[in-house]
Target: ATP-binding cassette domain-containing protein
Amino acid sequence: MASITLDKLAHSYLPNPQTDADFALKELDYKWEDGGAYALLGPSGCGKTTLLNIISGLLVPSKGHIRFDGQDVTHLQPEERNIAQVFQFPVIYDTMTVRQNLAFPLLNRHVPQDEITRRVNDMIEVLDLADKADRRARGLTADEKQKISLGRGLVRYDVNAILFDEPLTVIDPHMKWQLRTKLKDLHRQLGHTMIYVTHDQTEALTFADRVVVMYEGEVVQIGTPEELFNEPAHTFVGYFIGSPGMNVIPCEISGKTARVGDIQIGLSGGYAVTGAKTELGIRPEFVSLSSDSSGHPVQIEAVENIGRFKIVRASLQGHAINALLKENEEVPADPTLSFEAGRINVYENSHLVRPGA
Ligand SMILES: Nc1ncnc2c1ncn2[C@@H]1O[C@H](COP(=O)(O)OP(=O)(O)OP(=O)(O)O)[C@@H](O)[C@H]1O
Model:
């Protein structure tokens, strides 16, 4: 296991990058802790695979260095980095049994036979493959094959890091949550440094201690699931995390008041006026609907019942806004909206600013 330092790392696929936009990965400067579970989360094309390939050694970055426990590995080949990788699709030997597949990475590294037997048995139990252990992989389902792939990564105990690239893509939805939980347990037990690439927020939030949110080649926030929910550092994080995501509404700020069209919304602290593009961010969970005349009049556009909650899609001064109602609550007559002032975030040019800033 190792800490991973991304030292002023950046990558462009162009030979002579000129501007920021030419970089698939914009400059990063972070240290990821030894034994941490990190998820790289973001939409297609945001640079997740580029970063993962730099860590694994498939790609040499155009700028900066990557270090494992302080040792510069920027120019080392993947096989010299002592990492395990699990890909989207199973990478296993069809003609070998489950047991042989799991033992193979250890045999290759000359681990003593009794140690191999112990580790393989543990992994078979953890992955619930006991009844298939001596069957050839060829006849197994896609789910089972991918479990073997996960096992082949996890069975190695001496690796610097285990990298997962969308490993649950081929897994049946019912099985996904089981494997997600299992991976989390394994991380607790084994303490490996794990990096998990996904575009699925549920996978990222359930697996990781810290989620690395990427957007257009930039890491816009690294935080715990709670931090990403409560204080999104960028409007994209607010929008991308949560279902539905955070409401983002253009406004003008003056001290402790935000103006949206004709209405004024009280804030929990005062903000300096800078002339930058300003927006309010408030999660639907903290927007309430009532008939209270102290609230702000709102037009209801639609109500979607999603089980435990209803999503109320509304329009406030011409801006789309979502609120949540419990399943047994109805939209009131002449509805008005109110906001929990302490839950309103303020953004300048898409970045979070704090009161007094
Ligand atoms: N070999 C390449 N040559 C040129 N451009 C590339 C190459 N690989 C990726 N890119 C570009 O770099 C940017 C980041 O791509 P990357 O594959 O890292 O994103 P991603 O977040 O992993 O996306 P996905 O989830 O679709 O795999 C994209 O604009 C992509 O088109």
Q: What stands out?
A: The chain has a mean pLDDT of 93. The longest helix spans residues 173-190.
